Amino acid sequence: MTATTIHFVRHGKVYNPDHLLYERLPDFHLSEVGRRMAQATAQYLANNPQTNTIAAVYSSPLDRTRETAGAILEALNNVRETRGEKPLELTTDERVIEAGNEFRGKRIGHGEGALWRNGNWKLVLNLYKPSWGESYQHIAARMDAFAREKVAQHPGQQIVVVSHESPIWSYRHYLETGHPEHWMFLRHTALASVTSVTYDNETGRVMSITYVDPAASVQ
C-alpha cells in the first residue's frame, strides 16, 4: 500500500499596517515577522527526516503564499543539494487561492468598512455559510479537486501546498466531518502552521490528518 501526504501550509504574517481585509488583492507581502515564521516552518520541514524528502511545492498565486513557499523551497533545496538531487521549483495553482470576500480592501470595524454601515450588515447575516463571499462548499470542492489530482500525480510521495486559513480549514473540516461549514472563529490554522493530510493511493481514503505549529514562538 502506498500513500501520499500533502502538507498544507498557511502563509506567514502579512505586513498590513492599515488593517485592511486584503483577500486576493496584490502587493500584500510578508512582514519581517512573517518572513521569520516562513523560515521557521521551512527549517522544520527541512530538518525533519520524515518531511525533507518532499517531492514538489505548490502555492496560491498571491504574494504572501509565494514568499512563504520561497522560504520552504530554499530550505528543502539546501538539503536536496547535499544529496545530489535536482532543486525543486514552485508551481502556483488558482484552486488553492484565498476565499473570495465582498469586504476586500475594507477596514472591517472602522469607518466606511464598519459592519453596520452602507448596508454591510446584509453581508454577515450568516456567519456559518458564509454570506459575505465564496461559500465553504465551493472552497472545499476546489481544494479537494486539487488535492485528488496531486495525490494521483505523486503516488507514495509528500508535497507542500502553501495556501490560506479559510481554504485549509474548510477542506480539513470537510474531510473530518463530511461538510465544510464551520464557525469561522473556531479555526485551528495558525500562521505558518502545517496541516498534513495522508491519502491511501489505492482507495483515495484519508488515512490521517495531523497539525503542527512550527512558528508558534516566532516574534
TrEMBL record:
GO cellular component: cytoplasm
Entries under InterPro entries matching the protein: His_Pase_superF_clade-1, His_PPase_superfam, PGM_Phosphatase
SMART domains in UniProt: PGAM
GO molecular function terms listed in the Swiss-Prot or TrEMBL record: phosphatase activity
Pfam families, per database record: His_Phos_1 (PF00300)
Record-linked PANTHER family: BROAD-SPECIFICITY PHOSPHATASE YOR283W-RELATED, PHOSPHOGLYCERATE MUTASE
Name of the protein described by the UniProt record: Phosphoglycerate mutase
